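Hi R.,

Here's the chain you asked about this morning:
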Amino acid sequence: MRDTSRRLDDRIMEEFQQQDYEAALAGFRLFIELHGHSSLAANAHYNAH
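And here is the predicted structure, written out as tokens:
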């Protein structure tokens, strides 16, 4: 599960860095839904708001 959350986080951050903010926002929200207890979730919460 950790590998899955890391890959998803990496993909979302790529979208964010490419300034595809709409896709990144959707990705952050999905990440929280799927991996809300992951150590990476704090970053997703911060960026989703």
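One quick note: The mean pLDDT is 92.

Cheers,
M.
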